[in-house]
Write a structure and sequence with these properties.
With about 80 residues, the chain is an alpha+beta fold. It has helices at about 5-10, 20-25, 70-84; strands at about 15, 30-35, 45-50, 55-60. It has one domain. The protein has a two-stranded antiparallel ribbon. Strands 2-3 form a two-stranded antiparallel ribbon.
């Protein structure tokens, strides 16, 4: 997601669901409202869902352009240089 923060800045947030918990998430889907780009396959298509009690979610990128993913990579690289 290189440079996604600049795209989202002042527009919206990117919310992330805990990886590996799809089995839990599916129980929160109330209705499939639509699906776009089906030619990309089920996993890559853009799904419009009505959900209930969906979460907890993590703010991956906020409206100020702060990118949690970039921060984690930066901190990991800094830590790696300290131990090597």
């Amino acid at each position: 997601m290189k440079d996604i923060a600049s795209v989202l800045k002042d527009n919206c947030v990117y919310l992330a669901y805990t990886g590996g918990c799809a089995a839990l998430a599916v129980d929160m889907v109330r209705e499939v409202i639509g699906v776009h780009f089906q030619d990309l396959g089920m996993a890559e298509a853009v799904w419009v869902l009505k959900v209930g009690n969906f979460g907890p979610l993590i703010v991956g990128v906020d409206t100020k352009g702060k990118d949690l993913y970039a921060e984690v990579i930066k901190q990991a690289e800094e830590s790696l240089t300290k131990v090597s």
